[in-house]
Sequence to fold (131 residues):
Amino acid sequence: MALVAWEEQYSVGNDRIDQQHQRIVAMINTLGEAMETGTEKAALMKILSDLVGYTKTHFSEEESLMAQKSYPYLVEHREQHVALNRQLADYYRNFYLSSRPQTAEVMAFLQSWLFNHILEEDKRYAPFLQM
Fold:
């Protein structure tokens, strides 16, 4: 059973960005299912590895769109991306250095990313994509 279901109200009005955001939802659900079945360490390793590459592409595309549309809060939004990448790098590093996989912490991070960053901060630029 999915923890989070994508809903149209989460859309920022750009199919490519919405698909990328849906990937975060899928990662949350994959990690949640793995936690239920006791396979979270392997799932967490894959999710963290995928996120490292994913964020570079996603944030770059998102920031490029915001720049094209003259989004007035681009600098602040970019700073949030830097902070998210820093947090992700910490989880990635800790996964390989620690005997404890930090699954619950990563789940909380992903959910925070979804509910705070994507559904609040990213929704702020949605009207600019329509211009």
In short: The chain has one domain: 12-129. The two ends are 38 Å apart (CA to CA). Helices lie at 15-37, 40-68, 74-97, 103-129. Residues 12-129 form a domain with the Four Helix Bundle (Hemerythrin (Met), subunit A) fold (CATH 1.20.120.50).
